[in-house]
Design a protein that fits this description.
Helix 1 crosses helix 2 (39-53) and helix 1 packs across helix 4. The chain is mostly helical and 85 residues long. It has helices at 3-18, 39-53, 59-62, 68-84.
């Protein structure tokens, strides 16, 4: 899955689940400050992303992310890690 595909799926989740404006979901958007996602929302996002990628996501990884782009990079790294194993 490419970073573009990950971003598109993530944007769909954010729009559908959290009723965000798709135009606001850009790689630079900060999850907390720009998209108003709190820690409960982050857990919901992790669950939805796990369903899409078919892998468990360590919540510790998400403690380091701040932007939509950070999430895309983290998911991409996780998928690439699995592909190399």
């Amino acid at each position: 899955m490419t970073k573009s595909e990950i971003f598109n799926k993530m944007r769909d989740i954010l729009v559908d689940t959290f009723e965000l404006d798709a135009a606001k979901v850009v790689p630079e958007a900060r999850l907390l400050d720009d998209l108003d996602l709190d820690s409960i929302d982050a857990v919901d996002l992790i669950v939805k992303l796990q369903q899409i990628i078919g892998r468990k996501i360590d919540p510790e990884v998400f403690k380091q992310v701040r932007t939509v782009g950070d999430v895309v990079d983290a998911i991409s790294a996780l998928l690439n890690e699995g592909a190399g194993a």
